[in-house]
Design brief:
- The complex is a heterodimer of chains A (463) and B (275).
- In chain A, helix 2 packs across helix 4 and helix 6 packs antiparallel against helix 8.
- In chain A, the strands form four sheets. In chain A, strands 3-2-1-4-16 form a five-stranded parallel β-sheet. Chain A has a five-stranded parallel β-sheet with strand order 6-14-7-8-9.
- Chain A is α/β, with parallel strands linked by helices and 463 residues long.
- With 275 residues, chain B is α/β, with parallel strands linked by helices.
- Chain B is 29% helix and 32% strand.
- Chain B contains nine helices and 17 strands.
- The chains are: A alpha/beta (463), B alpha/beta (275).
- At the A-B interface, strand 5 and helix 13 of A face helix 1, helix 2, strand 8, strand 15 and helix 8 of B.
C-alpha cells in the first residue's frame, strides 16, 4: 500500500463569522473523515507516537479500533490513559508530541491523532453513552486533593477508582481550573469539560468548592485533625506575571488571567445578562505569543476590538502557541507584531492607555536551547497607538497554600520540589502539575496527576 | 449555599448581614476579607469581615448600596442564601501592644475597623477612635466601637452630630495633644489618603486597608494591583493592609473607576427589570 501523506483537514467555521461569537471554531471530523484519516495510520511495529504522548496513550490501538468502527473500544482505550480525551483532543500541542514524532510527519503527513481523539470522545458523549465506572473495594484510606484543575482531577479520579476516599478542595466556584477560567468557550466548550468532570463525581469523589487551599484547610489540619492519610497538591500556576514596565498599572492594562477569567468563568461576554463587566478597547495589544496570548487576542476580537495585535519579541518560527491557534488567530484578523517588545505603556492624565511604546528586536546567535536569542535594536523605540493592553507573559505559583505549609521545600522560583513519584519534603504530601513544573500544558498536568496517584496508592497500601 | 441568618439595615443605605459560613467563622482573623457571589449570573465582590462568631458559625458583613451588585445584595433577605462565599482571604492585621493607637475610620470603613480595634484593645493598647460620617443618619456603630475604645470622637461633614468637619481635623488635634504610637485608617480611599498624609507629618506608622476591584481574591487575576513603595503588589494576597505612607493613592483612586460606564449599564438594567 502506498504511503498516504494527505492529512484530512478538520473543518472550521468561517473566520469572519466565528470571530464575532463564542461558538466553537473547529467542527470536528465526521465519520468519513475519521475513517479516512485513521486508515492512513501505518500501525507501526515500534510506534513513535506513543512515547511522544505525555500519558503514553496506546495510540495505534485506538486508531486501529477506529478503522474497525469499534468506537466504544477506542474510547475506552483513550480513557485507560487519559481522564479528559475530549479536552486533550482539542488543546494538546500535538505537533510537539504524538504527531510531531509520527513517522509520516517529516513529509507533512502526520496522522491527525488529536482530531481522531476528539472524534472518538465526542462520538461517545454525543451518543449519550455513559462510561462504565469500575471501582475497587474501599481501602479505608482518605486522600485530600488541593486544586480541582487537570492535575487534581486526574489524580482524584485514579485514586477513587482504586478504592480510596477522595475529597477535592477547589478555591473557585467551579471545578476544572484553567479549563474553565482560562481556555475560551470557542476553543473548548464548557459543557464538554463539565461532562468529563461528571464522572469524577459519579465515582463518589467529594467536592468542596470555594475552599481556598491553605486557608480554612491547611495541610497540617487536613492530616492531623481531619484524618487524611495523604494530600495531593495541584494548585497550579495561578499568579500572573507582569513585565514591570512603567504604565503597567494604568486602567486598561489587564493580565491575561483577569481578562480571560472575566470572560470565561464569569461570562462577561454576556454582560449585562451576567453581572461581571469587562473592558474592551478598539486597539488592543496582547503581549506574548503562547496559547494564553492567542486566547486573549481572539477573545478581544470577538468582543468587538477593531485591531488586535500580538506583540512578541521573537519571530513567527519561535511562537510557542499551538500551530492551530496561531493559524486561527491570523485567519480571524489578529495582527502579528513580531520582533517587538514593549518598554512602556503610555497613558493620559486620567490613567487611560493611549499607546504602547516598544523597541525592535532582531534574532542573534542561538542560545543553549538552540533558539535564536532576540537582541534589542539600539534606538529603535516607537509608539503604537493602543487603548488596551493584555499581558500574557506567563504565570507563577500561587503563594497562598505554600506560605501556610511549614516544611514544604520550594525551589528558587517558588515551585514545590517533588521527585519523579510526586513526593515532596513532607511525608504523605505529594504534588504535581504546574505547581511543580511551572506553567506547562493540560496534558502534562494530567499526566503528573495520574502518575502521582499511582505513587500515593503505593504509599497508602504500604502504610 | 450560604444562608443569611440575620439582616439589619443600619441606616437607609448600609446593611448588616450575618452569613452562615462555619469554616470561615472558625478560622478568620481581624483584617481579613471574603469574596461572595450572589447567584449564577453574579459577579464576585470582596468585602472586609466586620465581625465573626465561631460558636454560631456566622460571619458578619456590612455593605453599602453603591454599585450594581451591592444594591442587588441589599434586596436579599433573611433566609436567602449566597451561592458562593469564600474566605478567609488576605492577611490578618498585625496587632501587638504598640502603646497608644489611633483608629481613624469613616463611612463603610467603620465596620471592618471594629474587629481590629477590639484586637488592639485586647493586646493592651490605649485605643482612640475617630469616626467620620457625612451626617448623623449615615453614622453607624458608634456604640459598637465605644465598647472597644478608650475614647471615641465623632465628626460629621454637615455638623449634624459630633464635631463638624473631617476625621483628619480631629485626628490632627489628637496627634498634637499626645504621643500616638501607631495608627489605622479604614474608609474611602480619599479619607485614607489624607489620614495617611496627616500621620506622616507626625511620623506615626499607619496601616490602611485597601478594597480595590477584585475577581477571584486569591492572587489569580491581578485586578486588585496597587503600588506600594514603588512596587506593584496585589491587595488580595499581599494585603489588604499596607503601609499607608507608601501607597500610590492617585493610582488606586483611578483604578476604582475602571468599570464606571459598565456600572451604569448594569444599573439601568436593574431599573428596568429589577435585580
Amino acid at each position: 500500500m502506498p504511503l498516504n501523506f494527505n492529512r484530512v483537514d478538520m473543518p472550521n467555521r468561517e473566520p469572519d463569522v466565528r470571530n464575532k461569537d463564542f461558538v466553537e471554531v473547529a467542527e470536528g471530523y465526521d465519520v468519513e473523515m475519521a475513517l479516512e484519516e485513521a486508515s492512513r495510520c501505518l500501525n507501526c511495529k515500534k510506534p513513535l507516537c506513543r512515547p511522544g504522548c505525555p500519558v503514553n496513550i496506546d495510540i495505534p490501538r485506538f486508531i486501529n479500533q477506529v478503522t474497525k468502527k469499534d468506537y466504544d473500544a477506542a474510547y475506552y482505550t483513550l480513557k485507560e490513559f487519559s481522564l479528559l480525551p475530549a479536552v486533550c483532543g482539542r488543546v494538546c500541542p500535538q505537533e510537539h508530541q504524538c504527531e510531531g514524532v509520527c513517522i509520516l510527519n517529516p513529509k507533512g503527513g502526520a496522522i491527525g491523532i488529536g482530531r481522531l481523539e476528539r472524534y472518538v470522545a465526542d462520538k461517545f458523549r454525543e451518543n449519550g453513552k455513559e462510561e462504565e465506572l469500575i471501582k475497587e473495594a474501599p481501602t479505608g484510606k482518605k486522600v485530600a486533593v488541593l486544586g480541582g484543575g487537570p492535575a487534581g482531577l486526574s489524580c482524584a479520579y485514579d485514586l477513587a477508582k482504586l478504592g480510596h476516599e477522595v475529597t477535592i478542595y477547589e478555591a473557585l466556584h467551579t471545578l476544572g481550573g484553567v479549563l474553565m477560567y482560562g481556555i475560551p468557550e470557542f476553543r473548548l466548550p464548557k459543557s464538554i469539560v463539565n461532562k468529563e468532570i461528571e464522572n469524577i463525581q459519579k465515582l463518589g469523589v467529594k467536592i468542596e468548592l470555594n475552599s481556598v487551599a491553605g486557608r480554612v484547610n491547611t495541610v497540617e489540619k487536613l492530616m492531623k485533625e481531619d484524618g487524611f492519610d495523604a494530600v495531593f497538591i495541584g494548585t497550579g500556576a495561578g499568579l500572573p506575571y507582569f513585565l514591570n514596565i512603567p504604565g503597567e498599572n494604568l486602567n486598561e492594562v489587564y493580565s491575561a488571567n483577569e481578562f480571560l477569567t472575566r470572560v470565561n468563568l464569569m461570562k462577561a461576554y454576556k454582560f449585562p445578562e451576567y453581572d461581571t463587566p469587562v473592558y474592551v478597547g478598539e486597539k488592543v495589544a496582547v503581549v506574548g505569543a503562547g496559547n494564553v496570548a492567542m486566547d486573549a487576542a481572539r477573545t478581544a476580537k470577538r468582543l468587538g476590538a477593531k485591531e488586535v495585535y500580538i506583540v512578541y519579541r521573537r519571530s513567527k518560527d519561535e511562537v510557542p502557541a499551538r500551530l492551530e491557534e496561531l493559524e486561527h488567530a491570523e485567519e480571524e484578523g489578529v495582527i502579528l507584531q513580531l520582533l517587538t517588545s514593549p518598554i512602556e505603556v503610555i497613558g493620559d492624565d486620567n490613567g487611560h492607555v493611549t499607546a504602547l511604546r516598544c523597541v525592535k528586536y532582531e534574532l542573534g546567535e542561538p542560545d543553549e536551547g538552540g533558539r535564536r536569542k532576540p537582541v534589542e535594536v539600539p534606538n529603535s523605540a516607537f509608539d503604537i497607538p493602543m487603548d488596551m493592553v493584555v499581558m500574557a507573559i506567563g504565570q507563577g505559583p500561587n503563594p497562598l497554600l505554600l506560605e501556610t505549609t511549614k516544611g514544604l521545600e520550594l525551589n528558587k522560583r517558588g515551585n514545590i520540589v517533588a521527585d519523579d513519584e510526586g513526593r515532596t519534603s513532607i511525608e504523605g504530601v505529594f504534588a504535581g502539575g504546574d505547581i511543580v513544573t511551572g506553567a506547562a500544558t493540560v496534558i502534562l498536568a494530567m499526566g503528573a496527576g495520574k502518575k502521582t496517584a499511582k505513587s500515593i496508592h503505593e504509599y497508602l497500601m504500604k502504610k | 449555599m450560604y444562608k443569611i441568618v440575620k439582616k439589619e439595615m443600619l441606616n437607609p443605605s448600609i446593611v448588616l448581614m450575618d452569613v452562615y459560613a462555619p469554616d470561615i467563622a472558625k478560622t478568620c482573623k481581624a483584617g481579613q476579607f471574603i469574596v461572595l457571589r450572589i447567584d449564577e449570573i453574579g459577579e464576585r465582590i470582596p468585602l472586609t469581615i466586620a465581625d465573626f462568631f465561631p460558636e454560631e458559625g456566622l460571619v458578619r458583613i456590612v455593605t453599602q448600596a453603591v454599585g450594581y451588585t451591592s444594591r442587588k445584595l441589599m434586596n436579599m433577605n433573611e433566609g436567602d442564601s449566597f451561592l458562593d462565599f469564600i474566605g478567609p482571604l488576605g492577611k490578618e492585621s498585625e496587632v501587638e501592644n504598640y502603646g497608644t493607637v489611633l483608629c481613624i475610620c469613616g463611612g463603610l470603613g467603620i465596620a471592618p475597623m471594629f474587629p481590629i480595634a477590639r484586637e488592639l484593645k485586647k493586646a493592651g493598647n490605649k485605643v482612640i477612635t475617630v469616626i467620620g460620617a457625612r451626617s448623623k443618619d449615615l453614622l453607624i456603630w458608634e456604640d459598637v466601637l465605644r465598647e472597644v475604645s478608650d475614647e471615641v470622637h465623632i465628626t460629621t461633614d454637615d455638623g449634624s452630630y459630633g464635631r463638624k468637619g473631617l476625621v483628619t481635623d480631629v485626628s490632627k488635634e489628637i496627634l498634637e495633644r499626645e504621643k500616638i504610637d501607631h495608627a489605622w485608617a479604614i474608609g474611602p480611599v480619599i479619607m485614607m489618603k489624607y489620614s495617611a498624609l496627616l500621620t506622616k507629618e507626625y511620623n506615626v506608622p499607619t496601616i490602611v486597608s485597601m478594597n480595590p476591584i477584585m475577581v477571584d481574591g486569591t492572587g489569580m487575576c491581578g485586578a486588585c494591583r496597587l503600588e506600594v513603595d514603588g512596587k506593584t503588589v496585589f491587595a488580595c494576597v499581599d494585603g489588604p493592609e499596607f503601609d499607608g505612607h507608601q501607597v500610590n493613592w492617585d493610582l488606586s483612586m483611578r483604578r476604582m473607576n475602571i468599570y464606571k460606564a459598565k456600572e451604569e449599564i448594569a444599573l439601568e438594567k436593574a431599573l428596568k427589570g429589577g435585580f
